[in-house]
Amino acid sequence: MTPAGWPGARSARWRPGTGAPRRGRDRRAEILLPAPGSRLIGADAPRVAVVGGGIAGLAAATGLAERGVRVTVHERDAHLGGRLAGWPVRLADGSHATMSRGFHAFFRQYYNLRGLLRRVDPGLTMLRGLPDYPLRHSDGLYDSFARVPRTPPWSALGFAALSPSFGWRDMAGMNPMAALPLLDVRVPDVYHDLDGTSAWDYLEGIGFPPSARHLAFEVFSRSFFADPRELSAAELALMFHIYFLGSSEGLLFDVPAEPFPAALWDPLAGYLTGLGVDLRTGHSVDAVTPHEGGGLNVTCDDGPTRHYDAVVLALDAGGLRRLVGASAGLGDTPWRRRVAQLRDAPPFLVSRLWLDRPVAADRPGFLGTSGYGGLDNVSVLDRWEGEAARWARRTGGSVVELHAYAVDPAADRIREQKDLLAQLHRVYPETGEARIVDQRHEWRADCPLFTVGSYADRPTVRTPHQDVLVAGDLVRTDLPVALMERAATSGFLAANALLERWGVRGQTLWTVPARGRSAVLRALASRGGE
Predict the structure, then answer these.
(1) Which of 165, 225, 322, 526 could bond to 212 as cystine, CB 3.0-4.6 Å?
(2) Per-residue pLDDT averaged across 412-425, rounded?
């Protein structure tokens, strides 16, 4: 099946000696070849506006500019990176630091995102691997992925065998027939099968023990900043496929060795500028309207309306809703209705604390938590981020970050911030004696919410207007990608769709296998559906 929004794409496996782009360790990863065409655009290069300077917008801009298209990136904020942006702050002790919207894990199966970053760092030296992905429950259970095999099906079996949250009685009480769809996840079939069920109800039907549900599967659902009672079970199954039974990359991940701007976006901005990309930060696009003579007019808050041959809308759900609502004549009525129905996930909180003493040396750099109130994870930034490590060495302190996902919109925010601090003291008691040198709290509510039954109405890369493309982690791609990798992949898909129209070959992409990789498990799943 051709991925949505990408006509002409072909799928093939990597073969030694083909010169295909570098990927991860999984030799069953799928290559998605773009439609054939010339290497570069002709002399009369079209002009394209990319609205949004996050991962999706920067991927689209890269794919287009590398082929000779004249690209302008319009970003509302003063800094590139979208949800991975960073900005300078001055701490109470006079130190300069970089604040952000919090920790992000760069998993090894994020092939297209990592390919984007390789433009400026071929060896990905800006990323540093963490040794484990530990999960801790307040009742004392502790899971680790360091010793779990990475090759399916041994990855899932190994996790169950090594995890204290799976006992023999728990295993005997499970419904294996209900779990069979997890053995052969295919996109988009998984949405047809499971999108009408919530992640919570699906796990209830399988009979996963509550401790295992909290420690394993809730990690996935909360990666979407969503309550599992609202999240589509199809998204949960897709994540299970990406990390457990569809890929041998496993659940270990890398993190940037410096703050996001220094490690990622400043170098990429320099690369794009060198390709002739015009990066316009610190202003917003107010409207995009079709021009009767062809192309589109882009109205900004910083000057006159500009005309472009095409536009890529690489916005979050709220930004896309607002822009389409303000852009008369853009798309048709059904498409505009689908965009208007996009929902945002509940608010999330990122609290960063600069403490006057170190966290105990045996604490992991990252810890997922469950049962500690609203606290979802703890990061000790000075264990891997250079800027935080330098501050910690200079002061003898530590830099700690706390996340709370899917916070009740009606919650008292000051109380939530205090509760996260109290939960940190439960998880790492030594922090209760520390003085807070400075603290910053970021509240946001701009992540897409993939509710039960919403798949059919999500925007695809292509729109009713051939000159308008959509990119971002909210986009329906019909590929086994999610989160940051969905953003990067959709950005390249948008660029490829335009390049195909202009007779230019686009970006070759990679994904984890598009179906369950074990023939035995696929056969079991097939029998379960009979």
Answers:
(1) 165
(2) 98
Q: Which domain holds residue 418?
A: 85-107+124-131+345-444
From residue 125, alpha-carbon distances to 179, 210, 255, 358, 509 in Å are 39, 39, 11, 27, 22
pLDDT(19) > 60 = no
For the cut 90, the answer to whether the pLDDT of residue 514 exceeds it is no
Instruction: Render pLDDT for 46-66 as a digit per residue (tens, 0 to 9).
Output: 999 999 999 999 999 999 999
Taking alpha carbons only, the member of 87, 91, 84 closest to residue 391 is 91
């706390």: which residue's tokens?
A: 402
Phi-psi map region of 133: left, alpha, beta (phi>0 left; psi -120 to 50 alpha) = beta
- Among 418, 444, 470, the domain-final residue is 444
Domain contains 2: no
What are the beta bridge partners of residue 441? 351
The token duo for 4 is: 């949505």
Q: What is the pLDDT of residue 216?
A: 57
State CA 173 to chain mean position distance.
34
* pLDDT at residue 463 in the model: 97
Q: Average pLDDT in the 302-313 region?
A: 93
* CB distance 101 to 444 below 8 Å: yes
- Kindly state whether residue 452 falls inside one of the protein's structural domains: no
Q: Which residue has the tokens 């995102």?
A: 113
What's the domain count of the chain?
A: 3
Check whether the bond before 188 is cis (ω within 30° of 0): yes
